[in-house]
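Retro notes, item 3 of 5
We never archived the inputs for the LHQ complex last cycle. Fixing that now. Sequence and ligand:
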Amino acid sequence: MPDPRYDALLFERDGAVVTLTMNRPERRNALNRALEADLTDALRRVRDDAGVRAVVLTGAGKGFCAGADLMSFGGGLTGDVVERHLVEVYGPIVELLATMPKPVLAAVNGVAAGAGCSFALACDLVMMADDAALMQAFINIGLVPDAGSSWFLARQVGYYRAFEIAAEGARIPAERCRELGLANRVVPAAELLGQAQAWAQALAARPTFALALTKKALHTALVSTLGETIRAEATLQRQCVESEDHAEGVAAFLEKREAAFQGR
Ligand code: LHQ
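Structure as it came back at the time:
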C-alpha cells in the first residue's frame, strides 16, 4: 500500500524487512526533488527503527534509477547549485546507504544510470535482473562520476577497469557486472524482487548488530593500514562480545540448536 508520506517512493514493510521502491517509472525513476526527499526521509526512518533489520532498494517499472532528472534542471543549473546539491542531497543519501546499521540490498531492475548507479554501488549487496545493467552515464553528458561512484567503482574493480567504465559510459550487462564484482547475483527478471526479499529476510534473521559492525570493519579496512584495521576490529569486537546475539550464538552452539538472534 502506498505510504501517504511519500509522493515518489513506495515504502513496504514485511516483518523485519523494508522494501523501498523508487517510484517515477515514466522517468525511469530519475531523481527529482520529491524522490530525493522521500528517499532521504525513508532511509533515516529505517536506520532509526531497530525493528527493521534489512532493507531492499529497487525501482518501479522498467528501470532502477536513471540518475539526476535532466528535465527538472530547466535553465537554472549553475556550478554552485550542482556542487551544493551533490554535497547536501546526493551525498547524504549515499552515506545513509553505506553506513546503514543493517544490510541494504540493491535489487537492480533495468538500468541503474548516473547517480542511480552510485546508489546501487553504495548498497552492501547487489542483485541484478538478467536484463538489467549498470551505466556510468555521466560522461555521456560531459560530467564526472559523482554521488560516490568514483569511490565505489575504483575500489570495486580497480583503476584501469574503473576508468574504462567511466570513460565509455556504456551499459554494462548484468552478467558482466557479476564477473567484474559489481554484482553479487544475477537472477531471472521475473524473480528479482522475490529473490531479493527472500535474501533480505534471511539476512534480517542474522545478528544485526554484528552485521552493522562488520560494515564498519570492512569500510575501515578499505582506507586503513593492516595495523589500523586490526585495532579497529578489536574495538568493534569488544562491542560484539558484549551483545545479546553473541551470547545467544554461543549458547545455541553449545546446546546444538539453531540460534534465535534478536539483532541486539
Ligand atoms: C529521463 C532520464 C533522466 C529525465 C530517462 N532524466 N528523464 C548530474 C548533473 C547535475 C547534478 C547532479 O548530479 C548529476 C548526476 C547524474 O546522475 S548525471 C546522469 C544523469 N542520467 C543520465 O544521463 C541518464 C539518461 N538516461 C538514459 O541514458 C536512458 O534513459 C536510460 C539508459 C537510463 C534508460 O534507457 P531506456 O530504458 O531506453 O529508456 P528511455 O531512454 O526511453 O527513457 C524512458 C523515459 O524516461 C524517456 O522519456 P519519454 O518521455 O521519451 O518516454 C526519458 O526521457 C526518461 N528519462 N532518463 N535522467
